[in-house]
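Troubleshooting: if your tokenizer reports a length mismatch, compare your output against this known-good record of 273 residues.
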Amino acid sequence: MESAYMKLTENRRLKQSLYEISALNLDDVLGRMSDSQLESYWQELDSFTENFPEHEGNLRSALAAKDYDLLSERLANMKNLLDKVHADDMAKDCQGQISVLSNIDHEKIEHEKLEARMNDFLANVSVLSIDIQMLAIKFQKNEEGAPAAKSAVKEGVKSILAVDDQAIFLSTLKSYLQGAQYKLTCTASCKSALDFLQNNSPDLFILDVMMPEMDGYELAQKIRAKGQKAPIIFLTGNASKESVLKAILAGGADFIVKPASREQVIARISRFI
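Known-good structure output:
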């Protein structure tokens, strides 16, 4: 009886956590799922995160080759994946792009605009994949599946340290946070970031994964070694299970996937401060 009760409690918690993944359209389906249907759906989500990197690579290869017929086929495969996990809005985006490609003059297509649109779409799907993986990791650890609550830090303006060797992202981040109630410090150097921590304790870290001095995972470990306990958000373009798990083990609490809109950045930050 106790085991059955624990299973019921876990399933309720899982359903509630799934509702919080905004890219999933579950209002009409999740509440009606039986325990066995929920288990099957959870397996479908796991399959999605496992297969997404390969499908993403196939899409990018077709786009780079300017093989728009193959690109339509790859988009159809991605749509099938998204349909199975009830990511309906993203699936509709796929279908829209397929329709555009099937009715376009391939000789006159503006490839740069198509590439930018595809990058935005794949970034959004990467966010979905990462959110599902983070939920899975937290459940494996027997933790709450929902995002971590805002930390009980000092009142007033919250401080953020952002580290990225690409000045263009730091500039974009500054513009995104202009007018928001955050004190943002930016640096392109891991060494400068560690020096900054000698006399400062930010309320949040935003770290790029790929940097020349050391990667974001190593920097995160050094930050934790200094006794800094603030949440760490990683900047990434890689939604593979290996990279997500590596980030979690390094102390990561969340991700921002490039390219990211202002709304996405603010939403990610506001989970914690």
